[in-house]
C-alpha cells in the first residue's frame, strides 16, 4: 500500500496573523513539502492542477519535473490532470517526458476539476464535460499504446499517422487513476480500462463514496480485470495532529473556520462527524484511517491533504514528521496484515513492466 500527500496549492491567508504568502513562497513551499515527504518515508507526492487564483499549480509537469531531479524514491503524481480541457496529445507527450526524467516514478490522476469557468478559458463547453472526459481519455490511452495513431472524434481535429513522442518508458505508460467525487460515468470509465479509481474522500459522508467505489468494483469485475476486491482503489483523507487531541483542535480551529472551501459553515465538530476529517492525536488518525478499509474494502493508495487553509509551512512540516514517524508505520503494518493475498499491491512502474513482460512471454509461448 502506498501512503502520501496531495496538495491543491491554495494561496490562503493565515487567519492567526493575516499574512498571505506570495505565489513564489507557496510554490517553493510545495517543493519543500514534497522533499519532506520523501525524507519521512512517504511514497507519493501529488499536486493538483488549477488555472485560477487562489491556486498556483497551473503546470504540474514543471513542478514534478523539478521535484524528480531532487528526489530518488518518491512517486510523483497529479491530484488532478484536467482531461477535459487539456489536449490529450499534450498530456501524452508531457507525462511520457516526465516519466523518462523521473525513471518511471510517475503516474497521474485524471479529473474534470471543480472550477466551471476553466472550460471556456480553454475553449471548451462545460456541457460537454463527461463527453470530453471519455473521448479525450480514449485518445490518450491509444497514444500511449500505439506507435502510429489514426483518430477522429467530436472534440478535436483528426489525427493521421500521428506518433506521440517520446514513447512511454520501457513501453509502459504511466499508471492512470480516474478521480471523481460525484460522477458514476467516471467510475465506469476507470473500470472499463482496468485503471485505478481515486475517491478524494474529503467533503462528503462515507456513504457517498461507498456508492461510487462499489460501482467501480462491480464494473471492474464485469469487464474481466479481476474480482471486485482486486480493483485498484485510492482514497484521500484530511488530518491535523498534535500529541493531545485538545491541542490539535484548538490549533486547527481558526484555519478550519476561515478556510475558503468550508469556512463559515458547519462547525469543526460537525464536519469531523460527517466527513473523514480527523483532527486529534496520531492514534485517532490511525484508528480513523483503518476504518476506511471497513467502509471501502482493501485499497492500494492513501493520500492525505495537509497543507491547505493557510497553514504555515513550519506547521505542515511538523505534521509530516508526525505522519511519517508515528502514523504511517503503524498503518503499513496493519493494512498489510489485513490484506488478503489475492488483493494486489499498488501499481508501480516496475510492477507494470514486469506484468507486461510476463504477458509478452505468455503470448510468445502460445505461438
From TrEMBL:
It comes from the Bacteria. Residues 1-295 form the Luciferase-like domain. InterPro entries: Bact_Lucif_Oxidored, LLM_FMN-dep_put, Luciferase-like_dom, Luciferase-like_sf. It holds the Pfam family Bac_luciferase. Residues 1-21 are annotated as: Disordered. Keywords: Monooxygenase, Oxidoreductase. Coiled coil: none annotated. This is LLM class flavin-dependent oxidoreductase. It comes from Actinomadura keratinilytica.
